[in-house]
Amino acid sequence: MTPVSRETAGRLDAYAALLLRWNARINLIAPGDAAQFRQRHVEDSLQLLPLLPAGTAPGTDIGSGGGLPGMVLALADPRRPWHLVEADRRKAAFLQTVAGELEAANVSVHARRIEDVSLPPLGVLTARALAPLDILLGHAARLLAPGGTALFPKGRTAEAELTQAAATWTMTTERFPSRTDPSATLLRITGIRRVGP
Q1: pLDDT tens sequence across 41-56
Q2: Cα gap 115→112, rounded to integer Å
Q3: pLDDT tens digits, residue range 105-116?
Q4: Which among 145, 139, 73 has a CA at the least distance from the CA of 106?
Q5: CA torsion sign, 144 to 145 to 146 to 152?
Q6: What is the dihedral of CA 131, 107, 143, 181, to 10 degrees?
Q7: DSSP 8-state class, residue 53
Q8: Do 158 and 187 touch, CB atoms closer than 8 A?
Q9: Cα(79)–Cα(16) distance, rounded to whole angstroms?
Q10: Which single residue of 22, 91, 136, 188 could bond 174 by disulfide (Cβ 3.0 to 4.6 Å)?
Q11: CA quadruple 191, 186, 108, 12: dihedral positive or negative?
Q12: What residues pair up with 108 in beta bridges, in sequence order?
């Protein structure tokens, strides 16, 4: 369990209640995941918290869906501005509702495709279960400020994706074992540059 303050725990409980209520109308998580929502999704997202870079440089979560990990991190890291990018307008409406009801003033929701969003230079970028690593690195290279950090939870294909990405990208990669899934790895990546011209 990632330690959080009592206030943060209360906000995460309120977020979980909103998500489960909305999940009956729009598919935010798989129906079978509802009973294990805290462990399967909230704790999985919270384990990224200690991997965030120091300071309050803005962060973004691309393909945010139901707010995993972006909304969880924003609620646990309220001093950092967070941009949640989600093209599905119903899911973006859910994220806006959460931000409004929980008074998460540090959250901005962008109901747009990742390719179409314009953001300030970012200190951190996250994405969970969105795309292969080589595609994610393209988004990170475009959106991160120099010295920015990308955090990508990856499943059992992590090493194969890193090998494939090495043909196109240079980067510094740190690997951390997932505390919620023994087959998963958390990748913290910096110094992302495309190989060649």
Answers
A1: 899 999 999 999 999 9
A2: 8
A3: 999 999 999 999
A4: 73
A5: negative
A6: -30
A7: P
A8: yes
A9: 21
A10: 188
A11: negative
A12: 83
